[in-house]
Write a structure and sequence with these properties.
This protein is α/β, with parallel strands linked by helices and about 350 residues long. About 35% of the residues lie in helices and about 10% in strands. The chain is built from eleven helices and ten strands. Helix 1 packs antiparallel against helix 2. It is globular and about 60 Å long. The relative contact order is 0.15.
Length: about 350
């Protein structure tokens, strides 16, 4: 399938050939009937695993002697590259199609925007008819593995519901705008073998604004705003953000003066959700910023992260930059760091303050 061009703000490469992880745009603790445990495990282990696997395969291919390599090596590596790349792309479409507006949970009652609803009516007869067909395809995959995909085909001139047996099975030249993962890892932790119940619950968590934006991009209309594909509250300015891959490269830099200072910010009510942190980071309550800001150096970059890179780290970075600090927010937070396989250490609360937000716990 063709790949939609990702937002420019998160599509750069830490190194040539490196595929960058994309952040969660949903708040995993806020979803309707889908647990944080399920969503984070799926994102970190399955999506993140696919990204890591794809980068490892591409590294092997980059060093391959194409004139001497045995045919079975070429076949194996290119087949695995196709599967891993398909998994990466479809997982990104899947996660980006879910969640509320960032500052609120999904309502479970939203319908497609008017323009997209008209297209669904044109191509399927009605939105209800599309939904019935799409969910039936997804449920038909229960007990097996694969994807149910809503894609745009320029050749056929319409949206089409697609059945995919695996990550590499799709209609040629079709662009996915919605994908439902029907591999067991997508639902078993919450639903056991009840795949149909998972499909029904998933449909109550769609973010139609982003699905509609993907449709407009697929048909060549005006490109979407980058902020629609950034975690809610993440700094809008690219220079105020740092990707997990960029941070890992910076932390591996031998130049101590350019090595970022790591600042872990977490609301008191969210501390029980945490088990680890980046090595060398200090953890603080964001509302207690006036009590710890003077401890930060002004001559070194500062990387700020929270759980998923939403407004907690975003607001902190905005305030630090207003005060003259060279601060950047980690896109996707420690969850995205986990997805790239970044190293962590057990949580250390020795520097944490009970800030004013403790009252809201």
């Amino acid at each position: 399938m063709d790949v939609l061009k990702p937002p420019s703000s998160i599509s750069s490469f830490a190194a040539p050939g490196t595929v960058m992880v994309r952040p969660l745009l949903l708040k995993p603790q806020w979803m309707n009937g889908l647990s944080e445990r399920l969503l984070v495990s799926h994102y970190v282990n399955n999506y993140g695993g696919a990204v890591r696997r794809l980068n490892a395969i591409r590294a092997r291919l980059a060093g391959l002697d194409w004139t001497r390599a045995p045919a079975f090596d070429i076949n194996d590596l290119k087949r695995e590259e196709l599967i891993a790349a398909g998994s990466v792309i479809l997982h990104e479409v899947y996660f980006e199609s879910l969640g509320g507006k960032g500052d609120s949970p999904p309502t479970g009652r939203e319908e497609p925007p008017v323009e997209l609803a008209r297209v669904l009516e044109r191509d399927f007869g009605s939105v209800a008819a599309w939904r019935a067909e799409f969910t039936a395809i997804a449920k038909a995959l229960a007990g097996g593995s694969g994807w149910a995909i809503l894609g745009w085909s320029a050749r056929l001139g319409r949206l089409i519901n697609l059945w995919a047996a695996d990550h590499a099975h799709g209609l040629a030249a079709a662009t996915p705008i919605l994908a439902v993962d029907m591999y067991e890892h997508a639902y078993h932790l919450d639903f056991g073998a009840k795949a149909a119940a998972y499909v029904d619950q998933l449909m109550a968590n769609l973010n139609w604004e982003r699905i509609g934006a993907r449709y407009h991009s697929a048909v060549g209309e005006e490109s979407v705003e980058d902020t629609l594909f950034l975690p809610y509250g993440s700094p809008a300015q690219e220079q105020a953000r740092i990707t997990p891959e960029e941070l890992r490269a910076a932390l591996n830099d031998d130049d101590g003066n350019n090595r970022p200072v790591l600042l872990d910010v977490c609301l008191l009510r969210d501390v029980p959700r945490r088990t680890d942190m980046l090595a060398g980071a200090t953890m603080h309550a964001p509302a207690a910023l006036p009590r710890w800001i003077e401890e930060l150096p002004r001559d070194r970059p500062i990387a700020v992260y929270c759980i998923c890179g939403f407004q907690v780290s975003g607001k902190t970075v905005t305030e630090l930059r207003q005060r003259g600090y060279n601060a950047r927010a980690l896109v996707g937070g420690i969850t995205a760091w986990h997805a790239i396989g970044g190293a962590t250490v057990p949580l250390d609360l020795s520097t944490y303050e009970d800030g004013p937000d403790a009252a809201s716990r």
